[in-house]
Structure formats: structure tokens, C-alpha cells
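Residues determine shape. Next comes a sample protein:
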Amino acid sequence: MRDIDDSKAPLLEHLVELRKRLIRAFLALAVAFGVCFYFADHIFAFLAQPLVDAFGPGKGKLVYTKLYEAFFTEVRVAFFAAFFLAFPIIANQIWAFIAPGLYAKEKRAFLPFLIATPLLFIGGGALAYYVVMPTAFRFFLGFQGNLGGIQQEALPAVGDYLSLVMHFILAFGIAFLLPVLLMLLERAGLVTRTQLVKGRRYAILVAFIIAAVATPPDVLSQFMLAVPLIFLYEMSLIAIWFTERRRAREAEAEKAIELHSEQG
């Protein structure tokens, strides 16, 4: 019973610390949401720019078929942008909570992944916004015109368009985290570089399956996600090769120090 009583204080301290970090993260998200909601029109205009460019100057329009759709679209835009705006603070609070429980060596190993995660996600989102979405939208709009004597015109709804944009950005952003996932799995000892090299053909197949599930049902978008995924897989193999060599050098250095201390 005494051991249980002695363990209460540290547990309560951890819970209090967790509560403090969560409150700060939610406050950061709430403040970011307020700012983004005020500029929701400008943010949505930025997100709509690929469609504007695909339609051409002065052409095309977005509609809403429900009275509340435009308002809730702005709310969703604000939440979507607020998460990205507040992410540095949220990540900092997560790091501040888990860092005291890590050894210095573990902190050095984990920190690069913490830095690489937002950079890779932004890279994937940027590829979706600047390359994939304009190409896909021009492809989709190419079906406008006379169809068997009936004029066919694209009239996308604001809610549907926002869902499509968020789908593109999130799909590409999360998919671009593949190197982080593979390196963490290798670091945890769940896979080895040799196994990843042998499984390359299966990785290519999985890349196309992921692209088929994560993107709209057109071959162009799927291809534009699958190819970067395969490239990132190969880059992960190279990065793992470098980390394996570095760990081998560190292990040799530690053995040399131990041998020297034993002889001394």
C-alpha cells in the first residue's frame, strides 16, 4: 500500500502536466480558429484559385444548394487552416510533455522526425495544390460541352469543392510521411533495410493501391500520387542506409572506448 501511495504523486503530476499542455494546445487552436474565421473568405479564395485557373478568366462559378452550406463551409475552412497555423504550438506542447521522459540520445534520435514530419506534409500538400489539383481540375472540366444535344456544364458546390480540396491536400500530405514511417519502423527494429529492398515490388503495388484509395477515381491523379510515393520509398532506403552506417560507427566508437577503459 505504501508503494501505491508513493506512486500517486508522480502520476498526479503527470496528469496535471498533461492537462496544462492540452489546455495550451486547445487555446492555440481556438485563437488560430478565430483569426482564420475572420479571414475565411481570403483563405477560401486561395483554395479556390486552382479551380479559377482551370475555368479560365471570368468563367465558372461555385454554387451552394443549402442555405447554411456557405456558412459551414467557412467554418470548415477556418478549422482546416487553424490546425496548420496552430500546429507548431501543438507540436511544441507534445514535445514538452514527452521530452523529459527521454534520454539525451533518444531526444537526438526523435527530434529529426519531429522536424521532418511538418516539412514532408507541407511538401505533399504543396504538390497537391500547385501541380495535381490544377491538372485534375482541367481534366474534369474538359467534359463540359454538348453531350448528345444537351449542354453539360460544371457547377461545383462550395461544400463539395472544399471537401475535394481537403481530400487532395490531406491525402498527399499524409502520403508524403512515408519516409518518417519507414525510418521509425526501422529504428524500432520492426523492419530492416534488407527486407525493404526485397519488398520493393510489393511497395510499388501498395503505392498504386494507396493512390487509388486516397485520390479521386481518375487515373491521372492516382498516377501523380503513386510515382512520388515510389520515389519517397527509394529515398527512405537511402536515408536508412546512412543511419545504419552512422549507428555502426557509433557502436564501434563505444566499443573502442570500453576496450580502452578496460585496458586502462
Q: What stands out?
A: The first strand starts at residue 145 and ends at 147. The first helix runs from residue 2 to 38. Residues 1-9 have pLDDT under 50 and may be disordered.
